[in-house]
From TrEMBL:
GO terms for cellular component: plasma membrane. InterPro entries: UPF0324_pro. It comes from Bacteroides muris. Pfam families: Cons_hypoth698. It is a multi-pass membrane protein. The keyword Cell membrane applies. The chain crosses the membrane at residues 21-39, 45-68, 80-98, 104-123, 135-153, 165-184, 196-217, 229-246, 253-273, 322-338. Keywords: Cell membrane, Membrane, Transmembrane, Transmembrane helix. The keyword Transcription regulation does not apply. It is found in: Cell membrane. Belongs to the UPF0324 family. This is Putative sulfate exporter family transporter. Its main location: membrane.
Amino acid sequence: MVSNQMSTKGLMPFLQYHRKTIYVSLLALLSLFLLLDYLPGMHAYSAWVTPPVALFLGLAFALLCGQAHPKFNKKTSKYLLQYSVVGLGFGMNLQASLASGKEGMEFTIISVVGTLLIGWLIGRKFLKVDRDTSYLISSGTAICGGSAIAAVGPVLKAKDSEMSVALGTIFILNAIALFVFPLIGHTLNMSQHEFGTWAAIAIHDTSSVVGAGAAYGEEALQVATTIKLTRALWIIPLALVTSFIFKSKGQKISIPWFIFFFVLAMIFNTYVLGTTETGAMIGEGINSLARKMLTITLFFIGASLSRDVLKAVGIKPLIQGTLLWIVISVGTLAYIYLF
């Protein structure tokens, strides 16, 4: 018993001391196995490296070893996610994607406004969470997680502590969603289209939406990505409305330009690459590389978590985020099955 306690106490400092070496080793290992997919007969050896596995390894590393290269993690995950999303556009047909996502787009307006109102009711009226934190959590749940919080925060003139709590809450729920949603989808025998619509609306960040869609199937990935990126455009009107409600003038609004490049990639793939066999192969190659980049991105995102973030979140903001997440998840399921 004593020896076990001593070994446990000795293991954590060891892992933390060598965290940079472990970090580089994990990243190299993931990259190596992903690249094996391009070698004939080696697909079976790379199949285990899925988005949920990459996120889990990142989370496990952060909790056991602590953060390594936090600035690199944050910057790389941000841009790599954007490049990955644009690359996914080269594997999609514009007409097919718009047709499959039409139903979800119509529900987007109702869900965005409804989530903001319900979030205000839960956070401010029931749990008495401070105004800015409650609003940031609601915004992140309503649109696209961390991106919405990052865009609305400066307009709201939120404090760093409030931003950290909101981002931490969304991050924790995001990680859970990537594992739980595909399991629920299979349990409910949801179709590819149904799951893609549900994931796009009920999961916060684009990274986890795309990851869950990819884990569920090709059509689910296309539907989820199209609806989620359309939903992300609501960042712009939300920031404008926020500045009006909270009387914030002269604040810069962060526009998610990568969404427009995603649309351009779909158009180029549909009307240029998709017209020839060679072009189609090029599009598939870019799309395949983008998926692997997304998997690595999720490792970076998981490794960005810290114990300090978990401590800062607190119980009330987490309860607000969880209740709001349950409401939007169940509400979206009801919409899908009833309409």
